[in-house]
Please model this.
Amino acid sequence: MSWWSIGRRYFVVNGFDGALTMLGLTTGFHLEGEVALDVAIRACLATAVALAVSGVTSAYLSESAERRRSLSELERAMLTDLSESAQASAARRVPLLIAVVNGGAPLLLCLVVIAPLWLAHAGVMLPLAPLPASMATGFLCIFGLGVFLGRVSGTFWLWSGAKTLLIAIGTVLLIRLLGVWL
Model:
């Protein structure tokens, strides 16, 4: 299995987490009513940074452990030291690449989802109010991830995108429902 197939999976999983988390935050702010844009932006950025750091460190730690284990098992099976081999080099390099993808994906998608907040804060006129515009961007990102998954799996892209969009809509409805009780 190539590092890219693993990285692609991590990109989708953590990108989905990032986009859905920002959709949740912006939905919560929207339900709150009057929230200052700078407060919403700071909260979203802090969350994006936390997701990125979590993604980088968790992927690096887990992938490094798995790669070291696989290398050790291979060394035992071959009865030789492979510390200078291509396998050892890959065992050191691949966790770094996967960690960057795993942490970069949620950061990238978070920044895309909150872009309308920044634009509005900078005085750019948007077709929607800032929070609904950010929420719409979140829906588009999540739909796009579904389309990407459809392309990867060879299934109908629209159906795949619709499934991820339904998850996002269900999440927003759940947040709205919980908001009634809080």
